[in-house]
Amino acid sequence: MLLSEVVAGLRQLVGEQHVLTDNASKVLYAQDVYAREAPAGAVIQPQSVTALSQAVKFITEAGFAVLPRGGGMSYTKGLVPVEPDTVIVDMSGLNNIVEINTQDMYVTVQAGCTWKALHEALAQTGYRTPYWGTLSGIRATVGGGLSQNAIFWGSGQYGFSVDSVLSVSVCLADGTILDTGSAAQVNGTPFMRHFGPDLTGLFCCDNSALGIKTDITLRLVPTLPHRDGVSFCFRHFEQQAAVMSEVARQNLVTECCGFDPYLQAQRLKRESLTADMKSLGGVFKSANGLGDALKRGAKVALAGRNFVEADAWSVHFWVEDRTQAGIDDKLNAIRKIAAAHQATEVANTIPTILRGTPFGPVNNMIGPNGERWAPVHTLVPHSKAVIAYQETEAVFARHRASIDKYTIGIGYLLALVSTNVFVLEPVFFWPDELHELHHFAIDPGHIKKVKGFSANPEATKAVQAIREDLIALYSKIGGVHMQVGKTYAFKDGIVSANFALLKHLKQYVDPNNRINPTVLSL
Fold first, then answer.
1. What CA–CA distances, in Å, run from 42 to 19, 67, 209?
2. Residue 302 clears pLDDT 90, i.e. is over it
3. What is the pLDDT of residue 403?
4. What is the pLDDT at residue 264?
5. Among 313, 316, 318, which residue's Cα sits nearest to residue 330?
6. Same domain, 247 and 332
7. Structural domain of residue 420, as residue ranges?
8. Which end of the chain is more exposed for a tag (fewer CB within 10 A), N or C?
């Protein structure tokens, strides 16, 4: 069947206005934050699960590849097609809040719902999901978060996004809709994850290699009324990592992030006084009463833009509890750990502002002057955090000539997941032209103000070489990854028996390899 025939059939199935074939759409929807390769053959925007199911069956039977796209905020090519004429499913039309069930403590949403929309829908209920979104949640979707195993809001206490999932509904390559968990019981509802083997887990962290998620059910927990944060500066990574790891082991925080001096400076350059004022508005809204609002706002205002030392590493902790006494107890415990490692406490501006505006604009997709931006990451046990950092620094030393030649800036973002995971994320900034996705996703007012750069493929090639060396290094030291996509060499980094099992599962649910081919090396 010709692509033109497939397009004509899709218009019948999902509606004329929900099939995009213009060149701009085919280019935009086929790229992520880092990669822009072959354009899509067409983009469809189904408005119902039935339309999605029928369209996927039609596409795969015609022999074409199909892959879903959420908010496009990832950077490992999980949603970037490898075959010409791939049909991309824009999931934004499947964005409904299906059910909020506070009696049975779950919420069901369609996969195209953003984390911000879910958070706002639950705001007045007194409950939230344990993990409740990534910082890019204004655009990032719940389905994408599960495919990529996203982290941030709630991760310090509750783990990864997938750890909050009870059930998923998935469209397989032949259009079959499969339910998991207790929803698979013939008379059941999606209130429990483990009903027999954990099929829910198979369709998480998979970049939709096995099927396209349509509906997702997440646990609910009470929204705790008391929140605060604390920040510290350190002279070197090893000092900061020791504090972060001990805080994690003591299970004291709901979120944590850390920066090296370079990334800290980039953040301060990018933000403006106007942005600070907007952030203060969020701080006031999130506070517990007028007195608390004034207290928090005054702290932020007095700290100004010099709330951390320029040449220091910094870490920022968020805490929640039912009572103020509980908050004070956690903060005192964190301060005791930090003091044992000669940390310097600084104004908690970052925890205060980010918690006040948890889903702000995604302007950090570029550098302060319009540089391209992309990370690479590894997840390691606490015992390997320092090793991972030191070996990373050795890689940078080997690439120092090209780093200097192409003016590549490198920083570190650090995070914790639950009690047992240390996240090390080197972040790259380099001069190159921005892509269509940057212009689409970033605030127009912000992107107009940045300098920007001309095309610089050699600089991008140099960044890619460093990233590839880091990926090889992290595999060597036993590090793992969240959004595996097509960037991390999954097949090379997993024992053969496990990969063989996944391959057999892929062949069963997608015998012709039409759902997102080559993702996870499948």
1. 7, 11, 20
2. no
3. 97
4. 81
5. 318
6. yes
7. 363-476
8. N
Closest CA to 448 of 372, 373, 370: 370
Classify 504 in phi/psi space as left (phi over 0), alpha (psi -120 to 50) or beta.
alpha
Instruction: Examine the fold and report which residue of 330, 356, 382 is the final residue of a domain before the chain moves on.
Output: 356
Phi, psi of 204 (to 5 degrees): -110, 155
Residue 396 and residue 299 in one domain: no
CA distance 325 to 224: 13
Q: What is the CATH number of the domain that holds 426?
A: 3.30.300
- The pTM for the full model equals 0.92
Residues 227-239 have pLDDT tens digits of: 999 999 999 999 9
∠421-214-180 over CA atoms, to 5°? Answer: 65
The torsion defined by the Cα of 285, 289, 291 and 297, in degrees rounded to 10, comes to: -10
Q: Is residue 501 part of a domain?
A: no
Number of domains in the chain: 4
> Quick check: is 218 in a domain?
yes
Tell me if 514 is assigned to some domain.
no
**What is the rounded (10 degree) CA torsion for 62, 85, 441, 518?**
80
Q: Give phi and psi for 259, each to the nearest 5.
A: -135, 150
Short-list 481, 301, 304, 459, CA closest to 376: 481
